């Protein structure tokens, strides 16, 4: 029979143990080893049985055990110390408070998923884990930031495999009352979905000092179909996705009001939450009386957009008819045509019937935008250059901040102990010079840590494979072979990520005989694979099936395994236990790829195509680079070339280095490369470095700019709109009439003066900036790596102005210069944001 109503019964703890609840409800335990040790002490077996979830542990522990703990002086002292440490963590000044005055008050960080812990399964992969690490690092640094997302009642999906190796999805019911979540009393949000009202309640998770608020539509106020809006992460059809993104963006802004928070900076993590800009514009137009273009300018000033995809196919796009269905009322309220609204999500070089592009809207409604690695920044500039047609691609206003990983979450205790003793007690925020001390660690000590984690990985995978087999109905005797899976002494290579075709999970299978030779060699290699394919991606599922079929061979199955149901827990074992982390996407389709960073924090060596973060971090000594044959248009031939490179690296460099034991059981040359990896990568790849970069490069400039633009009832925003309109109308009259300089040969280092006469038409000299660009000249008279000099106004009359600048001949050989004119206004966030440039 089915219950008419259901509710959650929570365990009642003895008063002396009440701090356990506070500790369990703050997800700082997910990265604080002492707090986890405390919960393990409560009941070691139950701690493992509940998958290391403190809330589940407290609910399940025997009352007699709780009573016994109150009489254990050692436990009570540990509980008191751990509780006091959390209080200090939450209240003491940290990096942000100690670095000096800041214009930044609060960042609203919007993301469709957050990967905090396996105990809060609200993530699918890299984007969510990155968002979780961003929140954790913000907490550690004391950065004023609040996370905004959705609570999915079925999460993403749990993965299992059919007997044929085909991915199966199941969607468990999640009980928020049984998680580290608190329902925010009185905080309710409504949004309009094509004439129907969607209601949402609000859950709060505490990520250390950082609050995370999640909107949940599964409440009685909604009709049954509306309750399903937040059913699954990345589930449903395109209309369902649109409904989720309206709730996330527009509802997220309303939720901040409902909980009494006033964000200065709105950070959109990918385009999914982009409708937050429309919600803010609606308020400015209907309540503050701004025009549509004034509202765009006011919203842009306080908005930051981060793009995570290097391919157009990865961007959310919505059909015009669907946008009309859901946003006609918005347009009517704002007294603007639907076409004007839709233009925010269209490129000028695309046809009018093109789908509404969330990334384009994100870029148009954000004064500052960034990619997530240096190479990805270059890719993004090329991808979106059409939004600024007169601007050189290299100056397209998309900067980059390379992603990072939250070191305390992902680093094994053995390595954390080594780092705290040799690098710095505060090693998670250590400088590059401090990380150089890693060379002082004895080879044997570092190798013992690596061997211990490899052994833990092997044990965990045996247990997972055995449990999976029993779960499929196999007998104990049929899963006995699992006891021999993986050898704790054998070179272990890991591959774990989303199974998209461009990531090429099966590249090694392209040469099966060569692969078998590696597996069965006297100096063998063993491989561990894990990952999920999107439920609608049959090509990705086929990759998993191919791996399963290869791994089913009894001759190799002990050294080649695929582990199903990839999650944060399994990821942690793999990052900490693998010797080599493999990454072989087709360059440059990996935006960043942070899994290799997490492995590097545990002494693993990266073997990767020079894509994403590895492109800027590989130095020739800290891992290996797989050849990338980007010039080969035949994908099959390209894959063959790159597979050969991968095999060559494993056969002739990686395997010999690992098994070279000329000075005892420790592979000295391998450990030297481990030290090179740790010393060069660890200062670069932390989320602490990433968040500091966001604060100084983007958050604080955005906060200061927003305060200036929106002061005095948005006076500067209104003035800037009027100025842009005037400049746009008069820009056709801007010309470079003449450029004068000495064209004779010059000595190296000589200084040469350049004068330019500029026709301004109806504009004034203060409306423009005249620049001199100079540098060595390559083929086609292209200036290589141009230096930019602001030219000085000399005189003006009769709609003309004369400017002077000087260049230094900094390189021998052919040298050249050019002159250009840009719109100039102190309230522009980016010099090229109008996309207007006149060239000589």
Notes on the protein architecture:
With 840 residues, the protein is an alpha/beta fold. It has 4 domains: 15-91, no CATH class; 95-403 and 700-706, 3-Layer(aba) Sandwich (Rossmann fold); 419-685, Glycogen Phosphorylase B (Rossmann fold, 3-Layer(aba) Sandwich); 731-839, Immunoglobulins (Immunoglobulin-like, Sandwich), CATH 2.60.40. Helix content is 40%, strand content 18%. The strands form 7 sheets. The protein has a 9-stranded mixed beta sheet. Strand 14 (368-371), helix 16 (374-384) and strand 15 (399-400) form a beta-alpha-beta unit. Helix 2 runs antiparallel to helix 6 (73-91). The longest helix has 29 residues, at 443-471. The chain is globular, with a radius of gyration of 29 Å. The mean pLDDT is 95.
Summarize the entry for a quick read.
The chain has 840 residues and is an alpha/beta fold. The chain contains 29 helices and 29 strands.
Descriptive labels:
29 strands; globular; Rossmann fold; 840 residues; six-stranded parallel beta sheet; alpha/beta; nine-stranded mixed beta sheet
Write the layout of secondary structure elements.
Elements: H1 19-25, H2 33-42, H3 44-49, H4 54-60, H5 63-70, H6 73-91, H7 95-98, E1 107-110, E2 114-115, E3 121-122, H8 126-141, E4 145-150, E5 158-161, E6 167-170, E7 182-193, E8 196-207, E9 210-216, H9 224-227, H10 238-258, E10 265-269, H11 276-286, H12 292-301, E11 303-306, E12 317-318, H13 320-333, H14 338-343, E13 356-357, H15 358-364, E14 368-371, H16 374-384, E15 399-400, H17 407-410, H18 413-422, H19 432-435, H20 443-471, E16 491-496, H21 512-520, E17 525-530, H22 538-551, E18 560-563, H23 568-577, E19 580-583, H24 595-600, E20 605-609, H25 614-617, E21 623-626, H26 635-659, H27 668-681, H28 687-709, H29 711-730, E22 735-740, E23 751-759, E24 768-776, E25 787-790, E26 792-797, E27 800-808, E28 815-823, E29 838-839
Parallel strand pairs: 1-4, 1-10, 4-9, 10-11, 11-14, 14-15, 16-17, 16-19, 17-18, 19-20, 20-21
Antiparallel strand pairs: 2-3, 5-6, 7-8, 8-9, 12-13, 22-23, 23-27, 24-25, 24-28, 26-27, 28-29
Helix pairs in contact: 1-6, 2-6, 8-28, 10-11, 11-12, 12-28, 12-29, 20-23, 28-29
